[in-house]
Task: structure prediction
Amino acid sequence: MGEFFEAGMVLCFGLSWPASVIKSWRAGTAKGKSVFFGCFILLGYTLAILGKLLTHNLTYVFYFYIVNWIMVFLDLLLYRRNRRLDLAADAAATQAE
Result:
C-alpha cells in the first residue's frame, strides 16, 4: 500500500515538471527561476533513485522517479539556455544606449 501512495506523490510532482519545461522554453528568460531550487529537486530525485537501486526495490515507482529526474534536468538545461539569452539581451541593450 505504501508503494501506491509513493507513486501518487511522485506522479503529482511529475505532472508539474512538463508544465515548467514548457514555460521555460516559451518564456526565453531565466528571470524568476531558481537554479538552486532545481538543483535541490534534482538531488532529491537522484537520492530516491539511488535508494531504490541500493534496496533492490525496482517497482514501477522507480520509473516515475526517472521520468521526473529527466524533466527537472531538462528544466535546468533550459535555465542555462535562457540565462545566455538574458545575458545577450542585456549586452544588446547596453550597446543600444
In short: The radius of gyration is 17 Å.
